[in-house]
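Dissemination and training. As part of the outreach component of the grant, students in the summer workshop were shown how a complex can be specified as a set of sequence lines and then modelled as a single object. The example used during the hands-on session is reproduced here so that future cohorts can follow it. Participants entered these lines:
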Amino acid sequence: MLRFLIRRTLGAAVILLIISALVFVLFYAAPRDPARIACGKVCTPETLALVKKNLGIDHSLPVQYWDWLKGLFVGRDYTSFGHCDAPCLGYSFQNREPVLATIEDRFPTTLSLALGSSVVFLIFGVGTGMLAAVKQGKALDKIASSASLIASSMQIFVIGVLATYLFVDQLHLLDRANYTPFTEDPGKWFTGLLVPWLVLSLIFTANYTRMTRSQMVESLSEDFVRTARAKGLSRRTVFFRFAWRGAMGPIITIFGLDLGQLLGGAIITEYTFSLQGIGALSVKAVSTNDLPVLLGVVLVAAAAIVIFNIIVDAVYALVDPRVRLA
Amino acid sequence: MSLSRRNFVIATSVAAAGSTLLSACSSGGGGGGNTPTDGATSYTGAKVTIGTKADSTGPAPEIPGAKKGGTIYGLSPQDFSHLDPQRIYYAYNSTAALLLHRCLTGYKTDSAGHQTLVGDLATDTGTASKDNKTWTFTLKEGLKWEDGSELTVEDVRHGIERLWAPFITESATYVQLALTGKGAKWRDAYEGPYKGKHLDSIVTDKAKRTITFHLAEPKPDFNFTLGMHSYAATSPKLDTKEKYDKLPAACGPYKIKAHTTDKSMVLIRNKNWDPATDSIRNAYPDSFEFTFGINILDSTDRFIADQGNDQYAVSIYKEVPAERIQKVLTDPQLKARSFNGLLTGLYYYAINTKRVTDLKVRQALNYAWPLQQIRQIYGGPTAGEIATSIMSPDLIGYEKYDLYGKNTKPQGDPEKSKALLKEAGKLGTKVVYAFPNDPTYMKTKVVIENALKAAGFTPVMKPVDQTTYYDQIQQINNSYDVMWFGWSPDWPTAFTVIQPLFDGAVIGNGLNNISQTNISWINEGIKKNAVIPDQKEAGKAWSALDKRIMQEVAPIIPETFQRRYYLHGSKVGGAQMDPQFASTLLYKTFVKA
Amino acid sequence: MSTPFLSLRDLKVHFSTEDGVVKAVDGLSFDLEKGKTLGIVGESGSGKSVTNMAILGLHDPRNTTMDGEILLDGKELIHASESELEKLRGNKMSMIFQDALASLSPYHTIGAQIAETYRKHTGVSKKEARARAIEMLRRVGIPQPDIRVDDYPHQFSGGMRQRAMIAMALVCDPELLIADEPTTALDVTVQAQIMDLLKDLQQEFGTAIIFITHDLGVIADIADDVLVMYGGRCVERGTKKQVLSAPDHPYTLGLLNSMPSLDGAVDVPLSPIPGSPPSLLNPPSGCRFHPRCGFTEKVTGGLCSTERPALEVAEGRGSACHLTADQKRDLFADFAATRHN
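and obtained this result:
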């Protein structure tokens, strides 16, 4: 296990390094100048040069990348902001806020959104999928299957607006989407995120329903499930301890990847509900040519995916003893 | 405000490179004379006047029915990009600056949207020497910073001297140019205030509370220029340099209590602001609470739902989006909670005169252009007025004319166009039209292409990546004949439109004379009009120049003066459009009893 | 004859599918005494596994119709409730499956799987159940059972897995053991060991065994009685000696001819039965074997394709064929000559 972790962590670090370098290169390959924004409406070449110096982008690409990397590991000194401790992700071109602090500020929103909706779609998706598998071919199965098909073809920005209109504005059942830190007021945190959770999870629920159903159906036809029944175990025990155990592996794998992706920001959901998470931050970073923020966000998103890949592999090994970590 | 306002991505960012062009510290009457038939609030479209000393004396006239107290909530897709007044040039940032900062001059707006230039920090709109090269202002008494310290002429001077600090790169540059006379090299003339030296060209007398500007060139509208927030006062003692952008010291009616970047900002009353010194601002609410990151559909739906604190909410600057405009205009309850006005800027199509060299062809383009169909795509008459001149109705001296029959045949006049092309022997001329590839302009492209074909042209349509659109068309060696564009004046004199767009001296990569017009009588006319002392006289001269440019050069095809609609909560009183910055005039709002 | 321990009477197992009704078992009867081994022979799809799954009640009731009678120690099973069956399964009757790797849960240790069965039926503590599991593993010949008890199935060799499977099936001392081709996937040496193991255990506990296989060699080794199935029906039955040395049905004859001689006569060419097993969705009319049978023209009136031959059993011996005893004696004579010296 330790060896696995060390090996995979090293691999992840290399991947993140390559990704950051790629973002750097691609960013400067685009025909836009990040200095142009801070240069204002009257942008003379003199002012542009000054802005580049202020932003620390008056050096060659490799030097800039090296400075950025160094900042990440040993910190960095800025003329206008002073020392930035490692891990230093630099300062936003756009609003001159430290990138790390910005991400730390936004991440809880994205984390809350991801975890909350995960709970919802796991409960409903896996639950419905299991029910559908038990009631294979019956009305309930057919309803669940077609409902999930409809749900998965929905657009978040459509149902998001609809759900808000219906449940918030008309029926006054739920609170308007709004992020309150959990540490500040768990109640408000919950009610403020409930609508985004439900909407975001709707699409995932559909996927998990279908996946759980098919995995369970497959698993239920396995020989070892038949053996378990032949041993005299009850349907219930067989269903949960044997069939579900077999269906879990693929679901955990997909869930890990989904969660990793969600932690990189649910852009459309965040936009629809005006939540300020990693997704909204990344959209802003792209539209304002804000390289430091963009790099920070990409790193967080990539790290989330890579880390969850490792976790998935580790958990898979726990679930399925045939898999050995190496 | 953003040029590409219909673009989802760009619209989420005030400061995307492209949107830097149109807009700024403009001013003017609430809108043109012709209000759309379907129910816009009436704006009579008065030009800006220059106020007297009495107009400049506070307090601001009471708004009937208004009372002090409560909180007004503001919603916006994005945070203010700058709060350091010297770094403010975008209209949107000025919306906040109006509550926090004060300049020597400012605009007093009445309930009909009429604006008067008055002294803000100064007792009046200043005194110019005969040659318009020396301007003197006297400060009002009782001016204080939020910490209670006195606001002096040295603070006004420091605000201007800070513009030389290397970290300030976003400001307007009119005053720097005027003070140094060194053109683009203005930074070389002074090392900035942080090493103890002052500008020689500004003389202050603390005892008499006077400040005198010695300009290198005559500037009869210099008092308009000084109303831009780039030239607001900043105390050297309270100046925290780079950090000032996050937490500037206030001398206006409100100060910053809390600010979380991109999320929220809370403004509370600045107890050291004396209403008696301020003829512009009413400041009824005890506080403002702004929430950022609310997309415009979301905020519009919240205004429509009108629940909880949203009843006390205004849109800081975002208009009702096209998707909801019909709902707002057809529901009387919603319409009662809306207000609207014209933008001060002009949307137009620049013709590259270096490529399209024949005047007749440029005139034929003007005849051919299908303005009505284009406006229909923007949303019909509610989307704005059809433009026929360079100057917008808000500019001093504006006179309406219609050289190419756009009022009689707004759908285009293909016969006239064809006849002109035939005359020039240019029937079938190839025209390359460049436009941003966002959904709206992909639609207008179609009607333009059809109209050009009907009018005897061979159109070539060139969509350009919307995020780099301005950078690409601002290259002087680009391969486009006609380019979609827009421009908004920095203050309500035509100098701020005609000079940047048609002065032969400002042709270059990244500059705005993209029609590359370089004609000696235009260049001279700009120089001459810029120094006419009386602004009314100057206005007449500008209007004549405007018409002559369109008649004898026709370097652009004017398109529209656009209209914006805004919503607010039911418990908000006094909400009206700020004609200067195309936003809600926050300091006039109040909480209804 | 006393009441048999297990008795099937006219068992029918029909599956409803999208294409129609599959008559997997279509009227099967047999008896089995304690301490005896019944070998059931037949090709894939002949209904032998379906029969045994039916005894355990493992068919999905949503698409299965069962008819007839299954009496285990006098208790009727077809209409027994699920919970009654659960008490019997793994306890009084248990089953060994063919592919031990697929049939053992990959997610649980061998020991846990054995102990689980024991606990379910005896309610003893985990500790006792574990001790029992170790004992069972030792009994089936797993070396170091106290260590291997915590291994997962994939850590066992093929033979050891099958032993573990047997240990699991026998942990509650069942009175009926159904072994569904338990040795098919194993190599010959291991196969022999497993067979010996089963025989030993049977002797020790007096278990009744149903041994399903398509391998007549295995039958010769273990069975007391033999039942040959074809197309969901029994076509011949009798003692091992009767069936193997004096087959009374063309299909049994075909089976014997298609395998190497039991006593090692290698010079005789093998002749597989032509054609393929019948569709149970649309079974052939009359005798289900008739499309593949080489003797149909010997039967007058084309009875083979029109009339189902009755299974006439006397003293446990019988077959279902339209040929007369004389005809068979003549036609099957070759077989006796080549097979038995």
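DSSP finds 17 helices and 23 strands in chain B. Students were then asked to discuss how this feature might be tested experimentally.
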